[in-house]
Write a structure and sequence with these properties.
10 helices; 294 residues; alpha+beta
Length: 294
């Protein structure tokens, strides 16, 4: 378990570093193409990106809950679920998060927020009805691991970086097609245009890769909390038979314990489908958890 946690942390930071390099390359493209008269435009775009990042960082958790119609519950109206979360928080050393429920027959769950002190865990009514106690504890431990490992912060940062890359690419495209009299060498123009076109796609692929890495990490960390990896494996196996989430959307899909669109999960799916998937194949995750239980 510890080796898998270490490996996934390393992979995640490698991917976040790639984001930083990508953003640096975009600025290099601006530096090669843009002249002094458009520097104020670049500064304005950067300021807008910073403001966007701050707003997204502080409001993303609440926005996700509103988007899915989640309703907060208390210890009074769901004592069993509250106690399960509370006990696992004590075992994992995580502050008690707020608990939300989505009225949907699809079996799914997710954690959101910017840090352990400002976090929430959300469950669908479908997953609460489908799983037995040990399986539900496995799911709760998985989500608490996202909180403990600061996955919720990492994914917020990655999403913000994607937005920044897209914003900078749009500015570059706008500048490239301006009808000015600047005599920029055509190879520089071509490279700038290619970078502007490919940067958003590359950013999305990195975001999805980070999401997949964090799911493996949360599976391992969750199993470490409960000491019952087979329970989470059983919960994921049942999840394969669940319906798609009614409020599923691509912006928040990476937060859920498994693909909310209910796409068929197959360990042998093509490399192309893997690239554009928010989650690792369920069969692969189940197999890793089974190995941990041996």
């Amino acid at each position: 378990m510890y080796s898998q946690i270490t490996a996934n942390k390393r992979k995640t930071w490698v991917l976040v570093t790639l984001f930083s390099i990508l953003i640096m390359l975009i600025f290099v493209g601006f530096g090669a193409y843009v002249r002094a008269e458009v520097i104020p435009t670049l500064i304005t775009g950067f300021v807008v990106a910073v403001l966007y990042s701050l707003i997204a960082y502080y409001l993303s958790g609440k926005t996700v809950l509103l988007a899915h119609g989640a309703k907060e519950i208390s210890k009074a109206n769901a004592p069993d679920l509250y106690r399960m979360v509370e006990n696992l928080c004590i075992a994992s050393g995580v502050p008690m998060p707020k608990i939300y429920v989505i009225d949907d027959s699809s079996a799914n769950a997710f954690a959101s927020g910017r840090d352990p002190e400002h976090a929430s865990v959300t469950f669908t009514t479908g997953i609460l009805n489908m799983l037995d106690r040990q399986e539900l504890e496995g799911v709760i431990a998985h989500e608490l691991s996202h909180i403990k490992n600061y996955d919720i912060r990492v994914m917020t940062i990655v999403v913000v970086l994607v937005g920044l890359v897209v914003l900078l690419s749009d500015i570059m495209m706008h500048v490239s097609f301006r009808g000015s009299n600047r005599k920029t060498p055509w190879p520089v123009i071509v490279v700038a245009l290619i970078l502007a076109l490919l940067a958003p796609l590359i950013a999305q692929l990195i975001k999805l890769a980070v999401s997949r890495a964090r799911e493996y990490l949360a599976d391992a960390s969750g199993a470490l909390i409960t000491r019952l990896p087979d329970a989470l494996a059983s919960a994921l196996a049942k999840r394969k038979k669940s319906k798609p989430l009614k409020s599923a959307n691509h912006a928040t899909a990476h937060l859920f314990i498994s693909n909310p669109f209910g796409a068929k999960e197959d360990a042998k799916r093509s490399w192309y489908k893997n690239l554009f998937s928010t989650h690792p194949p369920l069969d692969a995750r189940i197999a890793k958890l089974r190995e941990m239980g041996r």
